[in-house]
Amino acid sequence: MRRILLIDDDELLAAPLATFFARFDFVLDSATRPSAGLAKLRAQAYDAAILDVMLPEMDGFALCREIRRESAAAIRDIPIIMLTARGDVMDRVVGLELGADDYLPKPFEPRELLARLQTVLRRARTPTIKGPLVFDGVTIDLERRQVQRLGESVELTSTEFDLLALLAGEPHKVFSRDDILNRLRGVEAELQTRAVDILVSRLRRKLEPLDCVKTLRNAGYRFAAARAASSS
Question: What's the total number of domains in the chain?
Answer without folding.
Answer: 2
